[in-house]
Structure formats: C-alpha cells, structure tokens
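Thread: Modeling a multi-component assembly for a lab meeting

Hi all, long-time lurker, first post. My supervisor asked me to bring a structural picture of a complex we are working on to next week's group meeting, and I have zero experience with this. I have the sequence lines for every component (246 residues in total). Could someone generate the structure of the whole assembly? Inputs are pasted exactly as I received them:
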Amino acid sequence: MRFDILTLFPDFFPPFLEEGVLGRAVKKGILNVRLTDIRSFADGRHKVTDDRPYGGGNGMVMKPGPIYQALKSIERTGDDVITILLTPQGRKFNQAVAWDLAEKSHIILICGRYEGVDERIISGHVDLELSIGDYVLSGGETAAMVVVDAVGRLVPGVLGGEKSNTEDSFEDGLLEHPHFTRPRNFMGQDVPEILLSGDHERIRIWRRKESLKRTLEKRPDLLKDRDLGEEDRRLLKEIEKLAEKG
Ligand code: SAM
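Re: Modeling a multi-component assembly
Sure thing. I ran the full set together rather than chain by chain. Output:
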C-alpha cells in the first residue's frame, strides 16, 4: 500500500517510519510511504505557505496554491486512491474506518497547520476529512502518523507472524482480554491460575469473559445495541451476577 503525506514538516516522520513493525514493513516494501514538503511548491524567494484570513481574525491560513501543486505532483497508484485532510472537524477515526482505508491502494494525507487550510482545497480536492479525536492538535502530522500506523498494520504481511490483528481491541467490538507474561509472581501478584492450566477451551472462555467484563466496565458504549451471541449473553449474566454479589 502506498501513503503520501503532504506536510510543512517532513522531518517529523523518518524516525516513526524506521522503527518497529511499520519500519520493517517499509523496509520490506509492503508499505511505501512518501513525504512531500508543501513548502517546496510555494512561490517566491521566501516560499510562503500561509497568509492572513480574509475577513480578519486571529492566526494564519494555509494558502491553497502550494497544497494544490503538491497534490498535483503525486502520481496516483492503483484504482482506489483517496485524498484525506486531517482536521478536528472531520469524521472520527476508529478501527472500522481504519479497515475501510486498508482496502485502498493509495492514501494521500494532507497535514494542516495554523488555523487550517483554505476551504477551497477541502471543497475541490479532498475526498474525506478525518479527525483522530475531539481535541485540537497544533498540526496534522501526529494525526497522519496515527492513521498510517492504524491502517498500515492492517495491510496483509505488515504484522507478519508476530501477531494477528484479529484479537485486538475493537476488532469484534470489544476490548481485548488482559495479558500476562513471566514472572509468574510479580510483587505479590500471581498470574491467574487458569492461564497456566494448558486447557485451551477454558482459557478461551476465561478470556472472552474478561473481554466482556472490561468492556462493560471501561467502555459500556461498545456493548450498547450490540447483538451478542448465546455464549456472550451467558457470560455477561455471570459477570452481572458476580457484580451484584459485590
Ligand atoms: N482552526 C482549526 C479548527 O478549529 O478546526 C484547528 C487548526 S489546528 C490548530 C491545525 C491543524 O492540526 C489542522 O489543520 C489539522 O490538520 C490538524 N489537527 C488538529 N486537530 C486535529 C484532530 N483532532 N484530528 C486531525 N487533525 C487535527
């Protein structure tokens, strides 16, 4: 899969693209991430990329010209290309959106700065406005990293044999069960006995129950309006009964 990131700060990205799971995928060529410096498409000696807002007011606005030229310079790869603007005003990014984007052949990400980009870029050249949450960042670069990371790890071959993503939180609408590793006792706390039993079916059920329990405790919104299977309903009843007992 190919990503193009349009930014005024391309230097933010190399360490992020060189380390860990993503770094390996980039090295292997499974992910092809290219950086485009919007400033290099600005006119004049000073390469100005922002200007005062029409109508007055605080802050500066990213000029449309350099972003348009930067977009034009990108050769589209494959037949499913999407241009995304990172903005707090966009659709909320989540795992379902990440899966939709993982189907694309080529994702172009525009990182805003200052008060944001000239509206005519949005109306004329953006397919999707995407927000990583209800807060305001100083630039779209960290948001672009979030999108590349969450989408990139869904691309076949990126996680390799290391881990399947099908058990992760949100994959089936629940938070994932807790994890334990060695030592067996850490500062007086033991690993749950069942995980040492070797009984795969009992461990599966225990994990499912823990997954439901922590979703109920931490993110009850995820369980609202969800169609649960018979086993889940039974496990939830057990959890509720236990909670009633205190
Ligand atoms: N004035 C804008 C507003 O109120 O909607 C906020 C501009 S913000 C300071 C600068 C840039 O950071 C935005 O253009 C956008 O690219 C990025 N950004 C800020 N918050 C974001 C978020 N929650 N999700 C994605 N991008 C964000």
